[in-house]
């Protein structure tokens, strides 16, 4: 999960994922056209994305086609939303009961 957050922390890598989503199967050269950096620098960013399993590459003849892999993002989403939804649901109930008790006590004092 740390690799996914690290990979997504850089704006160029997030833009590269956007490109791969909009153009599945594109090559390094296709991606490099959109950035004012060397092809080697683009390849380093893509390697970080691939190490985080956010990019899957497939060799097709002399070309390497790249695709966005949504599975790591889904794992992050599931972990944070599911786990913290339960946490906050329990705490919201506690807050609700506490407010109701305070209102009832306030009404008794009147």
Number of strands: 2
- What Rg, in angstroms, do the CA atoms define? 23 Å
Uncertain runs are none
- Main structural class: mainly alpha
Number of helices: 5
Q: Characterize the largest beta sheet: strand count, sense, and whether it forms a barrel.
A: 2 strands, antiparallel
Structure description:
This protein has 110 residues and is mostly helical. The protein is 69% helix and 11% strand. The chain has five helices and two strands. The chain has helices at 2-8, 11-22, 28-32, 39-51, 71-109, and strands spanning 55-60, 63-68. It has a two-stranded antiparallel ribbon. It is rod-shaped. The protein starts with a helix and ends with a helix. The relative contact order is 0.13.
Summarize the SSE layout with pairings.
Layout: H1 2-8, H2 11-22, H3 28-32, H4 39-51, E1 55-60, E2 63-68, H5 71-109
What is shown here, in short?
The chain has helices at 2-8, 11-22, 28-32, 39-51, 71-109, and strands at residues 55-60, 63-68. It is mainly alpha-helical and 110 residues long.
Task: From the structure above, extract its key features.
mainly alpha, 5 helices, 2 strands, 110 residues, two-stranded antiparallel sheet, 11% strand
């Amino acid at each position: 999960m740390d690799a996914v957050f690290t990979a997504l922390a850089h704006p160029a890598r997030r833009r590269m994922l956007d490109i791969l989503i909009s153009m599945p199967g594109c090559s390094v050269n296709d991606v490099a056209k959109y950035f004012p950096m060397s092809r080697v620098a683009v390849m380093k960013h893509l390697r970080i994305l691939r190490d985080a399993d956010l990019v899957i590459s497939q060799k097709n003849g002399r070309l390497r086609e790249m695709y966005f892999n949504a599975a790591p993002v889904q794992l992050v989403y599931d972990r944070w939303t599911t786990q913290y939804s339960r946490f906050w649901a329990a705490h919201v109930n506690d807050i609700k009961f506490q407010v109701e008790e305070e209102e009832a006590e306030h009404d008794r004092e009147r």
